[in-house]
Amino acid sequence: MNQPEQSSILYGRKITVECPATVANLVCGFDILGMALKDPQDLIEMSVSDQPGIRISHADGYDLPTDPAQNVAGAALLDLMQGVEESVGFDLTITKLIKPGSGLGSSAASSAGAVVAANQLLGNRFSQKDLVRFAMAGEKVASGVKHADNIAPCIMGGITLIRSIFPLDIIQLSAPPMYVTVVHPQIEVRTSDARQILRKEVLLKDAIRQWGNIAGLVAGFLQKDYDLIGRSLEDVIIEPVRSILIPGFDEVKKASREAGALGGGISGSGPSIFMLSREAATAQNISVIMKDVYDSLGIDSKIYVTTLNNEGATIRNLT
Amino acid sequence: MNQPEQSSILYGRKITVECPATVANLVCGFDILGMALKDPQDLIEMSVSDQPGIRISHADGYDLPTDPAQNVAGAALLDLMQGVEESVGFDLTITKLIKPGSGLGSSAASSAGAVVAANQLLGNRFSQKDLVRFAMAGEKVASGVKHADNIAPCIMGGITLIRSIFPLDIIQLSAPPMYVTVVHPQIEVRTSDARQILRKEVLLKDAIRQWGNIAGLVAGFLQKDYDLIGRSLEDVIIEPVRSILIPGFDEVKKASREAGALGGGISGSGPSIFMLSREAATAQNISVIMKDVYDSLGIDSKIYVTTLNNEGATIRNLT
Q1: Per UniProt, what is one GO molecular function of this protein (chains A, B) (predicted)?
Q2: Are B211 and A209 in contact (CB < 8 Å)?
Q3: A153, A189, B160, B212: which has the fewest Cβ within 10 Å?
């Protein structure tokens, strides 16, 4: 971390940051892979002052906590402020468009967006890796675990590999252009429940199959080999257990593959399901398929047809 | 498979093929990764005739079987001949320089070399993937398992990923130039014993750490990032169990890392140990370290300082 002069702090300015939704796990990459989406995105407006403290307000209807220690953005900022010598405070307004509990990295968007905004207002003194670390304190509030598989792509954009959490080792993986279709069935799956139903031990032969797929997926991204990406999007460990919590999962997956999706699966711990496609038309067709499945099950659903987002959290404006 | 004319068979010609040693697993890639070495290499001399049958002789002192069904090269050729309509036979002489039981893919070199040689003599009618499949029949004779993590790099060269065995899916991974130091302590570790001591179940948290490393290693190769390769060469599942069978393993690994090795570990199921280095001088220094460790333990050892082999099994001459 640099120690720039105090004058680099942008007192009296107001920044608006767009914080993208993210898909963690990417089927076979449980706890290590994540991908940023163009849509949906949260917005965070923030200003910095010499009045210590973090004051949070919400411009949405989700009734999230405003106490900084209980709020994911607040917890991330509290962690960041431990690295700030000057006596400063932040005022922020969060507009959530990524529904909490959707499995699309809603908490990560708030934590990541808050530290990206704060870093700009503080004269850009922290590295992206520092920001990931601060934002992980927000994830701890949200799910009890300091995971980075939503945070890293939200801050850095594109597809990220978390090779290791302790020590933190993040690798950005370039990938070919891809369309992403997401359905968020309006049911609740708690991250903590989704974790609890996982077995603590797995068969070695399943683990070997999984790491073959992970290796294939990483090679597919870097070699821009769509077929290999498709063949590697297989999860023999987590999905068979977690998909039980998501009605319609098998139908969505089967029909999407038949319609030409490269593949896909549960987004994070669900209930959202994502599918990757090479062509925009395929992604559109899949959105209709997804809607039909949930309509026929009598479950409301929200659909997004979007693309991979290579920028990550970005400054919409700074006034 | 093509069905070319019978006239494409090179009756009366004699081919000599060099069949390289290979390192399977590459630390964290158990059962999915393999790498070809420049040295050591076996030699196979072969001719084809219209006299059916496979006649094997050995020009080395290893007293390996000559019955085709019991010999790894013979078993591979028997499998290949099921795809040949013409009535042909092969005469071959095998000179093994890769010691059986070294963990350096000795059986794979014979199986792979035999089918590469035969394919040339038959007018190149089979694909590399066909050849891998035939040669796997040889591995079945050697170890009871049709694995491809030595066969694939031996035939294709470089570093190969076996994403899946059924169906067979082989991906070639480009990698930056690397030096390889190998020590073969003259002790016996049976592949079957090395497999039996592995637990059938592994902790999910260990599997996650392993697939983070595999993803990192694949990304490191493809992005030509030596540091990332080094950080990813960690095995929390297989090595802690198997290294117990190899005296001196921990010392060799620790001292090699200290001398600047990127990393390394058990070659295949052992007892050979390999270390990757970026510089030739480092690889040389490590060879001295390895020799010293085994000299001090009173165990004979054979050392190779070599490089990654991007060609795989190659034709030395065709007369």
Answers
A1: kinase activity
A2: no
A3: A189
